[in-house]
Amino acid sequence: MLSLLERWVNKIAIVTGASSGIGAAIAQKLVQGGLIVVGIARHVEVIQTISEKLKNAKGKLHPFKADVTKENDILALFEFVKTKLGPVHVLVNNAGIARSTNLSNGDTSKWKEILDTNVLGPCIATREAIRVMKKHSIQGQIIHISSILGHYVGVNIPFLNMYPASKFAIRALTETLRQEFVAEKVPIRVCTISPGFTDTEIIKPLSQYKGNASFAKAFEETPKLKSEDIADAVVYILSTPHHVQIQDIMIRPLGERF
Ligand code: NDP
Q1: What residue ranges define each of the domains in the chain, with the CATH number in brackets?
Q2: Would you say the CB of residue 20 lies under 6 angstroms from ligand 1?
Q3: How many Å lie between the centroid of ligand 1 and the Cα of residue 184?
Q4: Phi/psi at 71 (nearest 5 deg)?
Q5: Could you read off the pLDDT of 137-195 as tens digits, one per residue?
Q6: What is the pTM of this model?
């Protein structure tokens, strides 16, 4: 599978949210495939530990501390990559959060946190990556992690509030950017991956949810993907010939109940 990444060996990839779950699995798989990966998160020490475990891999993982809700952190990240490593070829906008609140009586600061992390952060990082890719005429790849909840609003899942809207937005941004690239004849590909329930930290509050017994039971019993399943989709996207523009990959665990 990792030999599929041959044409990206020694190229630079940025993966946001690389300290946990899906982002950690993507960073690991790309490093094993020979890419030079810059892993971003606030808990950078976790990425450092992952990096040490990968010291004998074909590629390398560079930890970088950044909060994607802070534009200056993102600008500092791109400055670091440009001056210390070289031009970025792949950007995976994976960092994302969910928050426990609702819309009808919700907390504005939590809504803003979701939108800043899941929508605006990826937009700023994407803009910075495109500037570099255009300057160096790179046939780059941008991958946004959306969700099945970016295709439809899940029924009876508690605390959805701004989260599905943020993931719908990501899919709209993917298509808007694709159209900009077509109009400007820019050879950069952009795509979305839309996972179903995946066994990571972000879904832990749902597994501990006591407010609705039938939901809690269904959630416990529903099958869940592994982070590596989503990382495999990233490898697949990168492995396709450059004329193939994948738009969106929806991935559900077999038998998902939601
Ligand atoms: P985790 O909670 O395990 O990982 C989230 C990652 O995002 C962490 O590395 C976290 O790092 C990082 N992150 C969060 N906020 C910020 C921030 N402000 N700045 C930088 N990094 C940040 O969840 P998942 O791995 O499941 O989530 C990855 C993506 O997958 C998200 O976009 C999520 O919405 C999406 N997704 C997940 C599904 C699931 O069922 N698990 C289903 C569909 C989509 P740190 O806290 O160290 O900053």
Answers
A1: 2-251 (3.40.50.720)
A2: yes
A3: 32
A4: -60, -40
A5: 999 999 999 999 999 998 788 889 999 999 999 999 999 999 999 999 999 999 999 99
A6: 0.98
